[in-house]
Amino acid sequence: MPSWSRIVLRGVTLSLIGYVTVAWCMEHEVGWLGWCGATSALALLLIFGVRPELRRLRSLRQHRWDRAIFDADTRPGVVTEVRTALDGLANRPANRAKRDALRLTLAELLDAEGDYGGAMAVVDAIALERLAPLQRALVVHTRAVIHLRASDEAGALRALELFGSCEEPELVQRVRLLRAYAESEQGDPEKALLVGREIELEPSVDVSVLQEVRVVRAAALDKLGKHQQALDALKRLDDDALHALAELGQPRVRMLARKLVYGAPAAQTGAGSREPDGV
Length: 279
Known about the structure:
Distance between the termini: 46 Å
Oligomer: single chain
Order of helices and strands: HHHHHHHHHHHHH
């Protein structure tokens, strides 16, 4: 049965119970007791019926929005939905966290659509001052990722300067890799290779972080002109990660991943392969 149908059925059932209770209490001259019981039943419906269902529906909606980042067919419609949700949320302090979450989702969707300017404008507009350290770190990480996908390494490095302190080792590792990637694109691929090796030697490194190490390594090798070694490094990724890179990776590794996934030739220059800025 659909979720809202269940809520309506519960409401009808509780209404009937409340009506019978009030009628019985009125007949026995204790009507106040019946009305208290009916009010309590309504409160229980709101607490245990409507509110959890609304939370569940919001969670499903967010999951659908997140999936649209990887689904070009549904993405334009979801971009409109998120914009509408953001416009409909009053701009007051109580809604700041919700508005920031919507902005992050919108920025990632616009980035996936190739609207890098729009994505950067949205994510850069999130004020960092009032965010908790972990939230601030996540926003800065997203800013840097979007700037890198737009071939704006300088902008990514400026964003990472705002990272601050963070007690999540995994997030710190990811930020180090983003900085290494940006610096590699600016001319220091050897340092990026060193950072990757250092992170691999750290204790308890998450598998997804190790995948990012391979991505940074591939980009640095390609920057050094070692094109085949770069492709070999990417081949160690799982299929899902490789397909995601082919669609949403930073320009250099996107081209490399497309060559592996689709067999498309990766354009080579003296400094490896890279799409034109903003592509």
